[in-house]
Amino acid sequence: MVSLSHRRRALPLRGFGYFLWEKRWLWLVVGLGAILVALGPPSGFSPAGYGALILLVGAAVLFVTEPIPAPAVALLIVVGQVLFLGRSSTAVAQSLMSDAVLFILGALMLSVAMVKQRLDRRIAALIVRVTGGSVVSVCFGLTLVSGALAALIGEHTVAAMMLPVAITLVRHAANDPAQIRRVAPVLLFSIAYGCAIAAIATPAGAARNAIVLALWEGFAAPAGDASSATPLAQPTVDYVTWVLYAAPVFLVLAPLIAALLIATFRPRSADFADAVAAMKLQLAKEPPMGGRDYAVAGVFALTVVGWVMFSGAFGYGPVAFVAVAFLLITGLVRWADLNAGVNWGVVVLYGALISLGLELINTGAAQSVASIALGLLGTLGLDDGLGLTAAIAVISAGASNIMSNGAAVAVIGPLTLQMAQGAGESVITAGFATAIGSGFAFLSVIGTPACTIIYSSGLVRPGDFVRAGIGPVVLSILVLVFMAAFYWPLLG
Amino acid sequence: MSAEHPVAGPDLPPLRGQAGARFRILVCIDNSEESNRALRYAVRIGSGTDADLTLLFVRPADQGLETGGMEIAVARENMLSWGLELPGKNALNQARDTLIELGFLSPEWEAQSRHVDVQGDPLGDYSMEYEGGDGRTICLKLAVAPTHARGILEECERSEPDLVIVAMSEEREGAAGKITRQTAETVAREHTGTVLVARELEESHGHLVCVWDNPESIQAARRDAEIAGRCMCPIHLFAVAPSEEERSSAETAIANAEAAIKEAGIPIFGKKVMVGEPAEAIIEEGRGYSVIVMSSRSKTGLRRLLSASTSLAVLQNASNSVMIAR
Question: Which residues in chain B have their CB less than 8 angstroms from residue A63's CB?
Fold first, then answer.
């Protein structure tokens, strides 16, 4: 291997026209934003609230159209808060960091550490040993095991770990492109959808859960008094409470979605028996788990225990940081690996979005938009109770299918929570409906991290997501509404 | 229809292959059947010992947001640790096998791999360069870029190929790395050199070279003639007059192009003048040919972006391959 002599360089000036064209959505957002600012706020909106809303809508358009890197959107949000909302630079900087952001950061670093340990071989060996060569049991095994793990260590972690397992099975099961097209989708979607629905089960499952935790803190003031809301120092929903609400949704959905996938793709058992046998042989050559593997797995188990026992007292982020610090001190993971594996710009983006979301709440802009939205939902009879919960789930799922679900929750979360408060409903229920509904982004490549990761394999097409996802989306929303109607009330 | 007023074509810098320098072809592949056909056509054009071939697969860079803040490189590295190849490498390996099957590449050729990190992604850009004893080089490249179009255009800037071939499948969707219709159109519009957008590319049906009475069009015709001459593809000249009054201008264009091409020693197999709406007439006439060849007057900047040219209309609406010759 030798290094290339050239480095990547920007297009020269003669491509200026192309640059303008490529960034057209950015110019559109900036232009429309300037016009809206010049027009001034409509009645019901404070100038700061109106500015925050313009920033939020602009950010949402930029997430969907992607004319600029996502971290650049974060920087523009920060600048916008200073220029258009009249916040001091220090106040904006302070609002960027919260326990939710620390939690996301710590969980991401733990994820990278887990993937680096090659624990996926052990998990794969467990799956093929338990499931045998039956295609149905392999798919159920992938969905349930991926899901159970994703709930604990995050959907992106498990998708990254399980992707090679599925591809190896595909390689053993199929040779020609037609066979691969028949076999690959069912295996890959078993992993992706298992991860996506499981990521709702615990706060650590996905970044969107941490964002909802942060938004709940913004609604700590008594109902109907959002304008005086003051963020609390500690989360309003601890780890155990979250699990009690959300984990049963995963447990009900997992087998149903696995069955739907099998019914959709109808894989043949003949394709799998030999593949599973070949994979067993391959995994038998792997060395047994060593002390290092046990240590990392043990640290993660203790982290989960820490979240369960101490998240109410100390927050989620510090617990994760203790684990990461321990891994670094003991040399179980290198900083270079964490540095390369975590996209720091996205962490800043989550911080900026949470900060902007709280601005929407505190300036009353969320309240004004929520009133309008409730009026529209009222025409459909969905402005309170179970109807509102269902509407929030549908809105969340819809938004997540057109932008990443973390961004979707940050964008719509302040509004859905405010809608619930405006309707006199539980903000907690609305938060769960938002977080869980955003996990139902089964229809697009970018909806959930797990979907993006399986798409990177090159073995599934965008159309496969629509074909595979329609049934699970409808089913998932129905199950969520069912749980909201009959199970969540039991929790008080 | 014969030309009555032959006029010598304008001065044209010779193609690299003819000037003694290497003739460089860049083929953008995406693992589709269309890109496989495009590769075979490139081999035909590159036959001989004076052509170098680069195959490019562009992998869009991870934005990070879609993967929840974890770099997708983590997943890719994990795939490699299982001994699995990344999607782009698969496509390049298949293309390499096709070249060996066609006898354009020999497994005995000396190979050298190169690698560079991109945006912190250790899997980054990758290339495998083969060098034959006859002086030919074949390079397989995997590049990371913000978008497909950007990746292809950057490679064009870097290697300045004489011909860029972009396979554009009519399939409306594809796996990761698929070259979309928008990407192909962007490359054809933005690249300052000659671009062949390969679509349902069937060999041996010849090139329909569409000409206008302007120097750029005559240059483009001669440029295509030289490329067509490399693959022994028959050339047919075609001019469309928007009205009967402009027929003489179209005939002059044919005559000028014929003179320029014959001056280069390349035979012409047919010529035709029609009256009608240019884009529609060209698309209809071009159905029976392997490639419709169009010229582009604006080479740079905003003019090209804003010009709703006939070339662009043909590119967007034809059902077969279109070459924008510059």
Answer: 65
